């Protein structure tokens, strides 16, 4: 497996651990619909949270969350809608991003960006 894949998997595992410690219930990981994948779907306070995890080995070129562009948002929203229909979920939905970057000592730092984007941003 390539190093970036290793970092991505580690970042998702750290994000799940972070979310669980923060009181989130993890409903599903790596939910796929057509060409889209949602990294984590969680629930907290009766809200469904769709979470995109982005990791980079450096922020020299862009912050991890900056990689979530309109096309990616459109795919995430499409997959989220399918998930909600498939599992008959009627709760409010929120879209978050978890950014993972190493600090100067190489330790991975998590930034949780709540309400990172709205479903209508995709258009």
TrEMBL record:
One Pfam entry name: UPF0102
InterPro entries linked to this entry: Restrct_endonuc-II-like, tRNA_endonuc-like_dom_sf, UPF0102_YraN-like
Family: Belongs to the UPF0102 family.
Annotated protein name in UniProt: UPF0102 protein N0B16_08775
Organism: Chryseobacterium gilvum
Taxonomy of the source species: Bacteria, Pseudomonadati, Bacteroidota, Flavobacteriia, Flavobacteriales
